[in-house]
Amino acid sequence: MATRDKPVPQAAPIASYRAARSRIDRAVARVLASGRYILGPEVEAFEREFAAYIGCRHAVGVASGTDALILALRALGLPPGTTVATASHTAVATVAAIELAGLAPLLLDIDPATYTLAPAAFERALAGGLRVGAAIAVHLYGQAADLGALLPLARRHGVKVIEDCAQSHGATLGGQRLGSFGDVACFSFYPTKNLGAFGDAGAVLTDDAARAARVRALREYGWRERYVSATPGMNSRLDPIQAAVLRVKLTGLDRANARRAALAARYDRGLANADLGLPQLRPGATHVFHQYVVRAKRRDDLRAALDRAGIGTAVHYPMPVHLQPAYAGRVALDPGGLGESERAAREVLSLPMFPELGAADIARVVGTIKASLCDAGT
Ligand SMILES: *Cc1c(COP(=O)(O)O)cnc(C)c1O
User: Fold this and answer.
1) Average confidence (pLDDT) over 330-349
2) What is the mean pLDDT of residues 240-247?
3) Is residue 74 located within the same domain as residue 41?
4) pLDDT tens readout for residues 271-326
5) At residue 357, does pLDDT exceed 60?
6) Is 213 in the same domain as 308?
7) Which end of the chain is more exposed for a tag (fewer CB within 10 A), N or C?
């Protein structure tokens, strides 16, 4: 490490614990003392509070974001093997869930400005030979996918829309919270997410009571009543200890998102003249900066320079799903190619971003980036 400064991590979920420690400790102790360790009132209360926050009628707490996607897809009741379109530039969980639900992924290219599913690619796919039954719109990095274009296309072709909101808790489009636009929405509460538990957790949201009831049954063996399964299900329940933590953290989500946006504005100002691509905002949308992602031609050199200065970064994601060994040569692909997804994988870099980060940390990251780009340019 080149400086005496403390390292700056890329993310720090422990800082969110320290910031609300006594309330979180009390919430956890309340569950332990209650004797209710599976589902029960904490989970129900969180489901109500989170559904109200997003603006949906129903929320069902499940064990992870990946499970939320699997259960949401299963609850749509698509015939086995139905094609589900999504972006290749996403967490592998989005695509893994499609296959785990017995469906077939179709991986499409992204819009390079927002890193979200390109409406032109979706249109090409709908015009192609495959019958698409559903699409997963991923609101990547904390900003809305182009729902204004995607939803009418989907509706016209009878395609169900799932919102993957794992990175967009609290973000809006046209003043309305993401997660309330599609047929069903999936959230992850992985510890580093904008709303993070201290373990795995997730939720499925929908306005459709019958669909919510199907997810509720599927998360517990497909039970119609205790010990009697009406359909084959699984075990994917939200842990009440995590639900109690999430209830505390939900009360601070808007404040935490505002802090992320303020930090992003500092990065924007500091890096305005650097030879980097900065995050671009979709008109009418609020970005909650799950990640602050820049594009750099010599990304790996920049990353190494930051690492030498004790500054943590991450690459979300280093390989688009269609090139990963588990999927390459096997899943259906965008007929127009996936050039933008492949370019993003080479160029994106996620800078340190979490609400407890300080202004001085941002200044240090900015200074290190400028010095590194300057050296590279001479
Ligand atoms: C984190 C994430 C998931 C998976 O959530 P888990 O809770 O880790 O299973 C799915 N999609 C996206 C876009 C994610 O970022």
Assistant:
1) 97
2) 98
3) yes
4) 999 999 999 999 999 999 999 999 999 999 999 999 999 999 999 999 999 999 99
5) yes
6) no
7) C
Q: Can you give the pTM of this predicted structure?
A: 0.97
pLDDT band at 128 (very low <50, low <70, confident <90, very high): confident
Structure tokens at 355: 């609400």
Cα separation, 266 vs 222, in Å, equals: 49
**Domain range for 299:** 253-377
Co-location of 168 and 298 in the same domain: no
Rounded Cα distance between 355 and 317, Å, is 22
Query: What ranges in 128-239 are assigned the alpha helix state H?
Result: 147-156, 209-218
Residue 2 in any domain: the answer is no
- Report angle CA 255, 259, 264 to the nearest 5 degrees: 150
pLDDT tens, residue by residue, 22-31: 999 999 999 9
The 3-state DSSP class for residue 138 equals strand
Torsion sign across C-alpha atoms 115, 76, 93, 331: negative
The ligand 1 site (C-beta within 6 Å) comprises 64-66, 90-91, 93-94, 138, 164, 166-167, 188, 190, 200, 202
Of 217, 250, 283, which residue is a domain's last?
250
Q: Give domain status of residue 165, yes or no.
A: yes
Pocket-testing residue among 190, 290, 293, ligand 1, by greatest number of atoms within 8 A of Cβ: 190
pLDDT in tens, 51-104: 999 999 999 999 999 999 999 999 999 999 999 999 999 999 999 999 999 999
Residues 346 and 203 in one domain: no
List the residue whose alpha carbon is closest to atom 6 of ligand 1: 65
Judgement on whether residues 127 and 187 belong to the same structural domain of the protein? yes
**3 alpha carbon to ligand 1 midpoint, in Å?**
35
**Same domain for 77 and 185?**
yes
The answer to whether residues 268 and 121 belong to one domain is: no
